[in-house]
Amino acid sequence: TWEHVAQAPPDPIIGVTDAWRADTDPRKLNLGVGAYRTEDGKPFVLQAVREAERQLSADPAENKEYLPISGLPEFCRLSRGLALGPTSVAIQEGRVATVQALSGTGALRVGAEFLSTHLPPAHPRIVYLPNPTWGNHKTIFAKAGFQVREYRYFDPASRGLDFAGMTADLASAPPGSVLLLHACAHNPTGVDPDAEQWGRLLELTREGRLLPFFDMAYQGFASGDVDADAAAVRRFAEAGLELVLAQSFAKNMGLYGERAGALSVVTRSKEVAARVESQLKLVIRPMYSNPPKHGAAIAARVMGDPGLCALWKEELRGMAERIKAMRAALYDALQQRGVAGDWSFVLRQIGMFSFTGLTRPQCEQLVSKWHIHLTLDGRISMAGLSAASAPYLAEAIADVVSS
Ligand code: PMP
């Protein structure tokens, strides 16, 4: 029956970690992984998370019953509050429908399915994604029946934002198209619009009658401050726009494998929000019935308890600071070696990744000669670096760019 089934290609990102694991060289580095690592290269479980887990296991009221289809209500309430802020008018007016999701990916998938079915019939099923973007975006929207188009985003010359290209592409998008925006810490480029550019994007969205779909996988990871990193989303919501929002607690709470996330739809009225939520449940029920409990219970406890919440924000700031310190360490080491070119973009880029502009052959050389594992698009995870390994990476870069 299955003889005709062809071998699927390995996932380009997961494949990097496999290659790193198989590498026996003691100097090997894994800069492909999209997960935070400590200075010693170890995964990090936050103290706030450990404490929430301890409280949960000691709580006699906790059990292993199913959650509702839409997830843990407290988790949904706190998640949207974290994103939209304590003074959100949309939340106060009850205009936001929120369901728990299987982390950010699940929120995107459920959101795309919902849009595919429930956008007005006259709207095109077209989504605009930045070029480049997180690889899974294309497949998620295509699987939900969307035509996928790209808008210009990264400018290889400046290693910054191609804002003119971006706005030109969005200005020609058919009305009703979905516009996917990374809320902060764009993956893979580490390049975000500035406040003024966000203002212009808001105008374009409104004028072009586009539907903004924010992917917020790194709230707090960019600046170390959850409120600052939510500025763009909040601005769109405060301007009275309808929007869709996918949230993940993978990075900012280190809950990767717990699959804690949320999907919110900001609507124009409480009545519409209730109907939207009822339809989101119809998307979820035949997919996986209801979401997992543990991660959402942890996140709800961390966000809901003032002491744990303060500890979490402090730990989050610590993670963001270490990543920024690694940017400085790499930049300094590159300067010391006199590596050709302007590398100041390493300092400017935001969040977990830096998009180096290294070519595919240069990346291949980093892997084969230097045992530095990365995706071949030149993206490096700053979280995979340490004070000890930054000079080694600089030495390797100096070598591959000069040979
Ligand atoms: N969106 C972006 C931009 C991401 O980088 C990621 C994680 N790599 C996700 C969504 C989804 O992550 P998760 O499903 O683990 O929350």
Automatic annotation (TrEMBL):
Its EC number is 2.6.1.1. Homodimer. GO terms for biological process: amino acid metabolic process. It catalyses: L-aspartate + 2-oxoglutarate = oxaloacetate + L-glutamate. It comes from the Eukaryota. Residues 27-397 form the Aminotransferase class I/classII large domain. Belongs to the class-I pyridoxal-phosphate-dependent aminotransferase family. Keywords: Aminotransferase, Pyridoxal phosphate, Transferase. In eukaryotes there are cytoplasmic, mitochondrial and chloroplastic isozymes. GO terms for molecular function: L-aspartate:2-oxoglutarate aminotransferase activity; pyridoxal phosphate binding. Its cofactor is pyridoxal 5'-phosphate. InterPro entries: Aminotransferase_I/II_large, Asp_trans, NHTrfase_class1_PyrdxlP-BS, PyrdxlP-dep_Trfase, PyrdxlP-dep_Trfase_major, PyrdxlP-dep_Trfase_small. It is an enzyme of class 2 (transferase). PROSITE patterns: AA_TRANSFER_CLASS_1 (PS00105). It holds the Pfam family Aminotran_1_2. This is Aspartate aminotransferase. GO terms for cellular component: mitochondrion.
